[in-house]
Amino acid sequence: MRPVKRKIKFFVAIIFIAAIIFLNNKNYLEPFKNKFSYFFYYPEIIISKITFSARDSLRLIFEIRKAYDDKIFLIDENNKLRKQISDLKEADNENKILRNILNLPLAKEHSFIDGTVIGKDPYNFSDYLLINRGSEAGIGKEMAVVDQSGFYIGRIINVLSNTAGVLLVTDNRSAISAIDQNTRVRGLVKNDRNIGLYFDMVLQDAEVRVDDIIVSLPIGASAAVQPIAKVISIEKYPNKTFQKIKLSPLADMKKIEKVFILLD
Amino acid sequence: MKIAHAVLILILSIVIQASPVRLFDLFSFAPNLSLVALFLLCYFLSFEKLLILAIIAGIAIDLLSSVSFGSTSLAAMGACSLSFYLRKNVLKGGRIADFFLNSLITFFVFYFLLGQADIFLKSSTDYAAIFNLININLAGEILFNLALSAAAYYLAGYYKSGKIYGFTRNIKISP
Questions:
Q1: What is the pTM of this model?
Q2: What is the value of ipTM here, to two decimals?
Q3: Fewer CB atoms near the end CB (10 Å): N or C, chain A?
């Protein structure tokens, strides 16, 4: 085949893709995308079930020793948490009494939809999950997503009729407005070139301590405040504007199977 | 190779690549099966079939990924065309070194085009693909891709020639 003909075919293909992009931007491709997503829906569910069960079986072999160490650690942790629960119950009662006196409504319970992870982004550099709930289940863009422990893991960025895409907090493109639960210092939780999570935009004189919990601020479609990460190290530089605060996400991002999408 | 077979192989690789747990995830990085499959299928297809395959792969991957719709089609078409051109005009020795160089250039160009297309289509600069090009995860992925491609290439060469040895011997698997 002559190179000239190849060039013509190449440009025809470019024009075809440009047309697809144009139609997609005008939302004419939504019915097609919804139908096409069903094509991947069932194979992904089957493969996810197989891989999750295979992973669990393999993990069982390697984690017996680790489970024993964890048990000792958890007993200690459990005792501390019992004490905290007891204190929190007292604080809750006090809170209710004070709200009654001030005539304030009680804190709103959050309604949510549960979903199962059926896929990941085909690109390895992206932390993006596909879940088996979409617009038919009432899911919309920018809704907050938490794991079974209530830890913030990301937000919805793509919605089709039966699936939705969750951009995890560990993705390079994610930036969450957040606050230190103890010192009330505000900042942005973001990933720095896949190295790790950082609490960014915190001025040098602001007080943030190691082990502080960073919680999300109610922004976008979600009014919920959810814990995101724990501070693990702080570096201060006199010649820079912001501190370098490294975080560790509270949710285990590699083991997420079930997610909960907050509707309010 | 028939285009239907190529599409079937590609769709299967995309479904596996998009599954939640990857069996090859031994380190902090993993290969991109769909990209490796697309690159290898280019060796068995004519130019026009290759363009069709790149467009189908792009649409399928973009439906499952977070990059803007159309980015992968553009990147795949550019990278596959470049690979085809290199194979036919520059790296036409058919040696394993030519194959390695071709795959390295193709994978790098693919991610570069993907990052640029995504930035352009989103009309913003929030995408960190350029950072990812120097990031250890992507560097590791490209190495993994090279290893997988080489293994597949060697197997294909063995399938064609019937000999298991001769890594430096010329192996031509062009259509």
A1: 0.78
A2: 0.76
A3: N
